[in-house]
Prior knowledge:
- The chain has two helices and four strands.
- By secondary structure, it is α+β, with helices and mostly antiparallel strands.
- It has a single domain, classed as Alpha-Beta Plaits (2-Layer Sandwich).
- The strands form two sheets. Strands 1-4 form a two-stranded antiparallel sheet. The protein has a two-stranded antiparallel ribbon with strand order 2-3.
- Strand 2 and strand 3 form a beta hairpin.
- The longest helix is centred in the first third of the chain and has 5 residues, at about 20-25.
- The chain is globular, with a radius of gyration of 12 Å.
- The model has no long low-confidence stretch (mean pLDDT about 95).
Amino acid sequence: MAAKYRKEIDLNLCKGCGICIEICPKQVYDGDTLGKPVIVRDEDCIYCKQCMLHCPDFAIEFIPLKEGDVK
């Protein structure tokens, strides 16, 4: 699936609760040593935005790509 969005994670806002890691149906994220998400399988993302919608810290954002944007 071609990328429609660029995911951004604001690690300054993220408290490392792990909700995004657990809720992702495609296991796009792994946790770092502090439990904060790391995008490791971006190509598997289906853009359901469940990670963003369930983030209690509003630390994940999906930014729409425009034609010609690099992911």
